[in-house]
Specification:
The structure is a homodimer. By secondary structure, chain A is mainly beta. In chain A, 14% of the residues lie in helices and 41% in strands. Chain A is globular, with a radius of gyration of 16 Å.
């Protein structure tokens, strides 16, 4: 098992700098959701042959994930239940000034959405983080950009809107 | 795995006939819920050392369950997440004119609630079923008597009310 509080910020990618993704190899992620309620949802995922189920709690900056490994058989039994609750994306991991950017290029009906997520081990470091200029529209607290919401409701009507939470960078 | 559509009716027990339970040995059931949304919820359960996770879909008469076995370790990892979403009950199984009554005596904060559930393999047989007189108040379609609702919200204010769905017995 793996349980931890995590601090995560999320940004919309407004442009892709030349050469940023070309030299990197993405992983294909296809998370599927079994159920979601309020700020809790249950995700299963095939991570290149390693199968996991994660109970995700919390919304916005501070979250708690509990992950258990699944057997291939358990995964295969549960996967059909995620129908209409799936996301397809290519995930790039990019080192950036001591943190790792998780750069997701959504495919299928969520194209052309691109998001960058960054995880931190403390709230203070999360608030001190200054994102790269290609990903400076923050959607950390916007429910419609949660993976589970994207899986269920598809692309939000307006991908780019004025950042709601930009003040976080200034207040700490 | 085990997936099936089931037809289930549920009744409140209004009195316990002398001798009905005394001669029987109950099993202790403590289901816990990981998440619930609309008519879908995810239950884990220790069935005397056999651990299962069930995705339950549907409300009322017709439901669909998908059950996978869990290891003890998976169960132990997930169980803490069901906090405040648990039910404790003693379950008796009673043969009754070709069907099996599942007679649940709730304990803890749900005492003194007693419910009888009956599963059928077809809708027609479910509708033709005439319950015993000690369990003739039907709550099949009453959300507040779902196990997950009992786990989350506790005992409904009024356990005994006029049956809402009794006409089912008459219309087929």
């Amino acid at each position: 098992m793996h349980t931890e509080w995590e601090f995560e910020r999320k940004f919309i990618v407004t442009y892709v700098p030349d050469g940023l993704l070309d030299t990197r190899q993405p992983s294909i992620y296809t998370p599927g959701y079994l159920a979601s309620e309020q700020d809790k949802h249950i995700r299963i995922r095939d991570e290149g042959g390693a199968f996991t189920m994660t109970v995700k709690q919390g919304l916005g900056l501070k979250r708690r994930d509990t992950r258990v490994d699944l057997t291939a058989e358990q995964f295969d039994d549960l996967w059909p239940l995620t129908q209409n609750m799936r996301v397809e994306k290519q995930r790039y991991r990019i080192d950036f000034y001591g943190v790792q950017l998780v750069f997701d290029v959504f495919t299928g009906n969520l194209s052309p959405l691109k998001l960058v997520e960054v995880e931190f081990d403390s709230e203070i470091s999360s608030r001190q983080f200054l994102p790269p200029d290609f990903a400076d529209v923050e959607v950390t607290h916007r429910k419609e950009f949660q993976n589970v919401a994207l899986a269920r409701f598809g692309l939000p009507d307006r991908i780019i809107t004025p950042p709601l939470t930009q003040t976080h960078r200034l207040t700490v």
